[in-house]
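Protein: DNA ligase-associated DEXH box helicase
Species: Sphingomonas ginsenosidimutans
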Amino acid sequence: MATLGDWLEPHPTGIYVRPADAWVDPSTPQPRALVTHGHADHARGGHGAVWATPETLAIMAARYGPQAGVPVGYGETIRLGEVEVGYVPAGHVLGSAQIVLTHRGERVVVSGDYKRRPDPTCAAFEPVACDVFITEATFGLPVFRHPDTGDEIDKLVARLHANPTRCVLVGAYALGKAQRVIAELRARGHDAPIYIHGALQRLCDLYADLGVSLGELIPVAGVPKAAMAGYVVMCPPSALNDRWSRRLPDPITAMASGWMRVRQRARQKNVELPLILSDHADWDELTATLEEIAPKEVWVTHGREEALVHWCMTRQIRARALALAGFEDEDD
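Structure follows.
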């Protein structure tokens, strides 16, 4: 008797969809790749052909150069071999998608990375009923419960206003997190210019080209130190304690990440103002999503796999950990 999803082959380097002769988010170059989103732990260069949303293809082109890309819009379905392939929003970053695979009457959803919180920079997650739901578990422990996004942004603005002779230097990853912090600040009424590290320029420009309004952004290069007092400055996390930050007016170091829930991580990075702002679902959102979708089986690709598998088993949901290799925390 055939087992559910036996036409999928999980490998350490990705998920091989045998009847489509294609890989989902392969970590090594493959002839045919189905890519969920543009973060480097899911989207690698060098594939023979890539199926992804137009936004993800644009992000991959910005990072890796021109791609042999086939754009698939949200709600669109294509056929590869014996498999129908559809893309629906994942709510993770701009262009992120869940990949819906239908074969032999079975439906499998590969969620990639996802979140359930509203995000002004990307389309919201859409639940899809399925037989097998392949989920991440980056924050798959009950200790991870993300606070309200607006409250975290208000902490940032309050610290800025309380220290007019200093700047607030926010470390945020270049794809997704930096743009979200900027857009969330704008949504809270922060209309002042925001200064950015040169490493953020290209992707911020791309977001603007793709219709995500970020307001006035000014490169830090060449700006006098005193001119940035009382302003927000954005940089990649690697620059928070770098020589580069010495050109800033007595910066208050902040970092936007779900990992800021872990105090030791904040201390390790010398973060004065931890901002718990994640682009992944927290524990409650992971489990609520599984209850909403009600799949027959759950496969966990990466993160804190054991706790989520255990949660499923206690609710009579078949679950397994896939232990895929190569997935990092680039996006959080």
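Remarks: The radius of gyration is 20 Å.
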